[in-house]
């Protein structure tokens, strides 16, 4: 599935050759084939979501153009489709004005440029959204599931009183935490492998350029950091509703500002610097480099080091908070 073409309707007040020429200038992949509608259907088409752009050509349009009266052409845009509305409206204006100019000059210009631009689209030649979207969903859900599983498990144990059973056993808080980290992390890691193999490569047919084992190592480091974060949040919350609110305040900013939804280069420098402390930023960086561009350890060693360092810090903070919580319960 490539980029979605803009749905276009044309309400031609006159059935002149110029109106037909303008309508025929819009075609895939940028636009759908224009639907010929009446002027009374312009607002209804936008309200019902059938069209993103509606071009209203007034009556006697060609006659007024040839007479030099500069008639107005109305372009209605559905601004709720933000990305299409912003760029597509510029394309519609350029195409329509270009056709009118060539019609009045009575020839279609074919200017030869001194340089030929050869466009090569790497890593996603067909610009298919499913390639990028599916892999980014896997990366985002690794963080989400890791925090939910570890935090919910700890809170449920505390609510049901099973955490007190662990206190009388010959285990230390560090061993209790490590047990939760590796067990929940292993569940998510297996789910990641099955998603890459069965869904992304199998069902969606998305090619993976790099090494899957190398990506799983990076996912394991990210799980080490995010499971520790889940335990830390669980020690702050007293119930599952409180834990859910804390998750919204932490997970949502990490997913939006880590570079998966929006390129980090388009963010303010302060946001970029602050988000370097989040494990998801480095996981997104190494995930995109390995899965899309086929990068090796010589390229992604720095995100690996960042993830390991952040994981150790989060584990130490979570362990200190977990020991304090157990001490209050004892």
What form results from the Cα inertia axes? elongated
Oligomeric state of the chains present here: single chain
Gap from first CA to last CA: 57 Å
What proportion strand? under 5%
Structural class determined from secondary elements = mainly alpha
Radius of gyration: 28 Å
Fraction of helical residues: 55-70%
Provide the number of structural domains: 2
Order of helices and strands: EHEHEHEHHHHHHHHH
Mean pLDDT equals: 87
Largest sheet: 4 strands, mixed
Number of strands: 4
Low-confidence stretches: none
* Major beta sheet, strand line-up: 2-1-3-4
Give the helix tally.
Answer: 12
Report what the structure shows.
The chain starts with 7 loop residues before the first strand and ends with a helix. The model has no long low-confidence stretch (mean pLDDT 87). The chain contains 12 helices and 4 strands. By secondary structure, the protein is mainly alpha-helical. 63% of the residues lie in helices and 5% in strands. It folds into 2 domains: 8-105, abc type-2 transporter like fold (3-Layer(aba) Sandwich), CATH 3.40.1710.10; 129-329, no CATH class. It has a 4-stranded mixed sheet.
């Amino acid at each position: 599935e490539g980029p979605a073409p803009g749905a276009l309707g044309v309400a031609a007040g006159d059935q002149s050759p110029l109106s037909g020429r303008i309508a025929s200038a819009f075609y895939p992949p940028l636009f759908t084939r224009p639907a010929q509608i009446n002027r009374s259907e312009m607002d209804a088409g936008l309200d019902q979501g059938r069209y993103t752009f509606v071009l209203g050509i007034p009556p006697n349009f060609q006659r007024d153009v040839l007479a030099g009266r500069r008639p107005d052409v109305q372009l209605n845009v559905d601004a709720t489709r933000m990305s299409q509305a912003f760029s597509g409206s510029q394309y519609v204006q350029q195409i329509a004005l270009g056709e009118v100019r060539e019609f009045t000059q009575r020839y279609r210009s074919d200017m030869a440029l001194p340089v030929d631009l050869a466009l090569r689209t790497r890593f996603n030649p067909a610009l298919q959204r499913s390639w990028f979207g599916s892999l980014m969903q896997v990366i985002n859900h690794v963080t989400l599931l890791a925090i939910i599983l570890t935090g919910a498990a700890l809170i449920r144990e505390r609510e049901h009183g099973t955490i007190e059973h662990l206190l009388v056993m010959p285990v230390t808080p560090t061993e209790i935490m490590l047990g939760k980290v590796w067990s929940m992390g292993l569940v998510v890691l297996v789910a990641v492998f099955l998603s890459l193999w069965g869904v992304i490569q199998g069902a969606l047919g998305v090619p993976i350029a790099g090494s899957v084992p190398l990506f799983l190592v990076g996912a394991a480091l990210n799980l080490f950091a995010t499971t520790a974060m889940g335990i830390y949040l669980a020690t702050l919350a007293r119930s599952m509703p409180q834990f859910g609110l804390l998750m919204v305040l932490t997970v949502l900013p990490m997913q939006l500002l880590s570079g998966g939804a929006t390129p980090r280069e388009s963010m303010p420098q302060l946001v970029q610097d602050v988000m370097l402390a989040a494990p998801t930023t480095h996981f997104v960086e190494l995930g995109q480099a390995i899965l899309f561009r086929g990068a090796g350890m010589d390229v992604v060693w720095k995100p690996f080091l960042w993830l390991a360092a952040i994981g150790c810090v989060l584990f130490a903070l979570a362990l200190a908070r977990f020991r304090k919580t157990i001490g209050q319960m004892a």
